Amino acid sequence: MWRYRSSDHGIPMNRTTMLVEAHWRVLKCRYLAMHNRPRMDFLAHLISAQLVQKYTRDYKQLVNCRKKDSWWKEFVKRWKELAVEPTQNTYETSLEQWWCTCLAFRCDLFLLCKHLCKLRSMPTYREIIRSRIPPFYTFRHEIGRQIPLLDGLVITNREFLSYLSYQSCRVSATPNLSIPKHNTCLVTVI
Predict the structure, then answer these.
(1) What is the rounded distance in angstroms from the CA atom of residue 65 to the CA atom of residue 58?
(2) DSSP secondary structure string, the chain?
(3) Which of 39, 111, 132, 189 has CB atoms 3.0–4.6 Å from 10's, for a disulfide?
(4) What Cα–Cα distance (Å) separates residue 29 from each residue in 22, 34, 35?
């Protein structure tokens, strides 16, 4: 049931098989609710015709900032709570590497602490880039949204969309990206 992380240099994105179970639950509850024991060809049709289109539409909404990630509301709420808390002790902090030596930083879900939140103003949704290796947050003031991969590489939306179209259509032209094969399905829009 448990899936162990393969490297020790970053925060694991998937700690268990819960993502697969959540995906299967969405498929069963939303698309197969009225179909008991569906045939495999019908299941393949649902996945290719409806589910993939929904994921593509949601991704495009995230990229164009018509929709924000599910974690964003909690992140803003937590940042505002920490920004108003008084600080008593002095800890070593680094905004460039986004770390603090206080215990609250290591225990927080979003890797925030009151010392870091007081040093920097609240970023907008398009400014922040989350990563699983240090620095955990990078703040950009560029117009184009950037997407970090699991290995810490950062690519822009245009490059990512061209890469996806290359993978799905199997066009003979080589894309401008050199992304390892094991990361193709694990890109997270942040």
Answers:
(1) 10
(2) -B---S-SSS--S--BTHHHHHHHHHIIIIISTT-SS--HHHHHHHIIIIIHHHHHHHHHHHHTTSS--TTHHHHHHHHHHHHHS---S---EETTTTEESSHHHHH-TTS--HHHHHHSPPPPTTTEEE-SSSSSEEE---SS-EEE-TTS-EEEHHHHHHHHHHHHHT-SSPPS----GGGTT-----
(3) 132
(4) 10, 9, 10
Cα separation, 131 vs 154, whole angstroms:
9
* Residue in the structure block whose two tokens are 């922040």: 128
Strand partners, 14: none
- What distances in angstroms separate CA 126 from CA 91, 95, 110, 150, 186, one per listed residue? 29, 18, 17, 19, 21
Number of Cβ within 10 Å of residue 20's Cβ equals 11
- Interval 7-16: pLDDT, tens: 556 666 666 6
Distance CA 132, CA 136 (A): 6
Q: What is the pLDDT of residues 143-175, one digit of tens each?
A: 555 555 544 455 555 555 555 555 444 433 444
Nearest CA to 56 among 181, 167, 170, 179?
A: 167
